[in-house]
Fold this sequence. Notes:
A hairpin with a 6-residue loop joins strand 1 and strand 2. The longest helix has 82 residues. Helix 5 runs antiparallel to helix 11, helix 6 runs antiparallel to helix 8 and helix 9 runs antiparallel to helix 10. The protein is an all-alpha fold. It has four domains: 91 residues; 83 residues; 90 residues, no CATH class; 34 residues, no CATH class. Strands 1-2 form a two-stranded antiparallel ribbon. The chain contains eleven helices and two strands.
Amino acid sequence: MSDTVANENTGTPTSLMTVINKRNPNTALLRYLVVLVLFAGLGYASYYLFQQQQNVQTKLQQLHELQQQAGIDSNQRTQKQQQEIEALHAQQQEMVKNFTNLLEKNQTSKEEWLIFEAEHLVKLANQQLIFQHDVGTAVKALQAADDRLKASGDPGVIAIRKALAEDMHTLRAIPQADIVGISLALTTLAQDVDKLPLQTPDPKSRVSPVKPETPNAADVDKWSDLPQAIWHDLKSLVVIRNHEEPVQALLAPEQRFFLTENLRLQLEQARLALLSGEAEIYKERLDTALKWTTRYFDKKAKLTQTTLETLKKLQRENIAPGIPEGSRAYQALQRYQQQKNK
Length: 342
């Protein structure tokens, strides 16, 4: 069908839209509105696509900047690591150079190093004896020193080895206390302090005996025996107690707490004195613990008796026996060094 029609009067062609517009003006208005909406939608879509494109470009720009910054940081880290590696390499070369110079200057032999180690071990043994009273460690150090001298093969150290043998023989003859066993015993006593029963305020007393033949007031048959029976009944109302020891006052709960804590503190101080070789402090603390246990706790209780026996046994231990004043091995080493220097 053709989009044009002939004009009824003139016969000239006319567009179909013009005809429709003339025939139905409302339809033409609707078409204009539809076209306007389409243009508006296309404009909004174009604007939206433009905004999305701008956002994508912005994000790409930011990503590019981050990549550049990461590349810069990576290069900086790589350069820093390279500098550190070069510095370590330079230090290593310097150490090798210094060690080489030391070997070239000193030319210290294996035998001299062994003798030097032996001298150090002898000094260590003397320190253990003087400051720690540790005979066992001192003997081990002297034995290690003798092993070093034996490995050196130097005939000039025979006198030193002889002095070492004499020192070790003297130290092995010294009686040694069981430090670990005593420490464990003191720890056990301190743990059982709370279980010790206190001394009661009224200990067991003796009741004066009453003669069985004395009549009771209810059993008298004669008026003449009544005064004696009444006197007997009166005496039975009074209990005569004979205290062999002074009566101790009953301790309040807070007093018992301080007593047990102070007793535990005395035992702990004795243990520390044991480990440090302080014989006088060790005996003083145990003596105080003995006195307090005897005075404030029930001596008839089995736990108290066991505690007192253990304290007396520990007090007799000699934790710091006599130590020789001089070291023959150290003096022999000094003479050896003097002769060598000459």
